[in-house]
Every structure is written in structure tokens, then in C-alpha cells.
Amino acid sequence: QDALAEVDEAIAGFVGELKAQGIFDSVVLATSSDFGRTLSFNGKGTDHGWSGNHIVVGGGINGGQIYNDFLKSYKLGGAYDAGRGRVIPEYPWESMYVPIAQWVGVDDVEGMFKNLDKFNRSHHIIGRDALFKSEQH
Question: Minimum mean pLDDT among 32-41, 77-86, 97-106: which range?
């Protein structure tokens, strides 16, 4: 919990500086991680997993909401458990990065995101106009 408070304080400071400079509406900040955590305990903690949550911040963001859906069940051995509590994500990381790329002006998102054709864009990828309230900068 202390680590999340530290992240919150750092983001608040960054946002404060962006606002002071008058550029908050033209900046987007997105968290990223190369791994999630398993749901099961290994005797000392948890192991690397496949799924995780992210934060997207910016003056142009339609904020204050959760995009995509949480899994229907986090039960060990359930439909989304690939074993030992490794959660199979329902949504790809492209879900939030495609609209960000579009917002900054990338026209060829299929060329940038090579796995995009493997997903149902209307279900798995957040629409640019859903994530952003402002035009691209």
C-alpha cells in the first residue's frame, strides 16, 4: 500500500507541473509493466504472471472510470487460470496503447501493432474517442 501511495504522489506532482506549464491537455502518461503477478502463494510471495492493471492520465483523457472489464472469476483453477494462479488476460496490452498511438497521430496502427488483427477491435481495443475527450495533439 505504501508503494501505491508513492506512485500516487509522484503522478500528482507530475500532473501539477504539467498544469503549471499549461500543457496537461497535450500530454498522456500511461503505466506499463512487463509482467503481472500470480494469484497463488509460492511460499515466499507470488511469481511473475501475465495480467495486470494500468493507469492512464492526461488532460485529454475521459478519466475517472475503469475501461474493459475485470475477470468474472479469479478462482484458482478457474476458466482464466492457466495454472498456479497465472491469470490469462481477457484484453491485450494493445487495448490501451492503440488509442494512445492514434491520439498522438499514428495513422498505421496495424503496422505498429503487429498482433492487432488477432483481436476483435470493437471488443478488445478501447476506441480513441472513448479514451480521449480531446483531439490529437
Answer: 32-41
Q: How far is CA 51 from the centre of its chain?
A: 10
Whole-angstrom distance, CA of residue 32 vs CA of residue 35:
9
C-alpha closest to that of 89 among 81, 100, 97 = 81
Q: Classify each residue of 15-49 as buried b or exposed e, where b means 16 or more C-beta atoms within 10 Å of its C-beta.
A: beebeeeeebeeebeeeeeeebbbbeeeeeeeeeb
pLDDT of 137 higher than 60: no
Residue 59: partners with Cβ closer than 8 Å, 6 or more residues away:
18, 19, 24, 25, 26, 27, 134
Q: 102: Cβ–Cβ under 8 A, 6 or more apart, which residues? A: 109, 128, 136
Q: How many residues does the chain have?
A: 137
Among the residues of the chain, which ranges form H helices? Answer: 2-20, 94-103, 109-112, 121-124, 128-131
Average pLDDT over residues 74-97: 88
User: What is the pTM assigned to this prediction?
Assistant: 0.85
Q: pLDDT at position 116, please? A: 95
Q: Say how far apart CA 111 and CA 115 lie, in whole Å.
A: 9
